[in-house]
Amino acid sequence: MRKAVAAGGTVLAEPFDVMEAGRMAVCADPAGAAFCAWQARNHRGARLVNEHGTLNFNGLNTPDPEGAKAFYRSVFGWETLELDGNFTAWTLPGYGDHLEEANPGMREGMAAVGAPAGFEDVVASLIPIGDGQAGVPPHWGVTFAVDDADAVAERATALGGRVVVPPFDAPWVRMTVIADPQGATFTASKFVPENKDLAREAGSAVGAS
């Protein structure tokens, strides 16, 4: 919390205990995107990830990417990794070592599907809010893994939700953005390794035209 304030952020909720599970504080970065900081005790965090219906990824949407880079570097030690398709990822140096220890062979598996160098350290994404997105506030968004993005979009509509962005192919994934009946948005993403070269192919097509 002190690091967040020193880096220009604000404290929205002072640190408090969540029974014996852990201790939490709610902060906002200088642009106003809110996030929670969690100090684990009996509950370390998500135990099931990257499977259908579970947490897959988090992303910061901000109008000030450079300011965000300075803030999150100061608070968490995050760096950034620039990938194909103008995609910027947050990385925590050494995070891949932790993943490899928990899941031996992780690096080998990533290499086998053609993951870019350094991807094992990725912890989130950085998404600029452009001039054409007036009214979109700075915010952190959540992505859930799914087995079928198209089917999830149809199911969400049937349950009273709304498809904000219809299913589309992107590098590594097929994804859709959905709003629940209360208006909260999230991304549903299916891992599609065959899509890994989409950004590179699109760039080549533009260069040849």
Explain briefly what this protein structure is.
Helices cover 25% and strands 37% of the residues. It has helices spanning 2-6, 65-76, 95-102, 106-112, 149-158, 198-208, and strands at 10-18, 22-28, 34-40, 55-62, 79-83, 87-91, 122-128, 139-145, 162-170, 173-179, 185-191. An eight-stranded mixed β-sheet has the order 5-6-7-4-8-11-10-9, covered by helices on one side. A three-stranded antiparallel β-sheet has the order 1-2-3, with no helix packed on it.
Count of the separate structural domains: 1
The CATH fourth-level homologous superfamily: 2,3-Dihydroxybiphenyl 1,2-Dioxygenase, domain 1
- Alpha-beta content class: alpha+beta
Per DSSP, the total helix count is 6
Strand order of the largest sheet: 5-6-7-4-8-11-10-9
Task: Give the CATH level 1 class.
Answer: Alpha Beta
Label the overall shape. Answer: globular
Helix residue percentage: 25-40%
Radius of gyration: 18 Å
User: Mind describing the biggest β-sheet?
Assistant: 8 strands, mixed
What is the architecture at the second tier of CATH? Roll
Strand portion: 35-45%
Overview of this protein structure:
This protein has helices spanning 2-6, 65-76, 95-102, 106-112, 149-158, 198-208, and strands at residues 10-18, 22-28, 34-40, 55-62, 79-83, 87-91, 122-128, 139-145, 162-170, 173-179, 185-191. The protein has one domain: 2,3-Dihydroxybiphenyl 1,2-Dioxygenase, domain 1. The longest helix is centred in the middle third of the chain and has 12 residues, at 65-76. Helices cover 25% and strands 37% of the residues. By secondary structure, the protein is of the alpha+beta class. It starts with a helix and ends with a helix. The strands form two sheets. It has an eight-stranded mixed beta sheet, covered by helices on one side. The chain has a three-stranded antiparallel beta sheet with strand order 1-2-3, with no helix packed on it. A hairpin with a 3-residue loop joins β5 and β6.
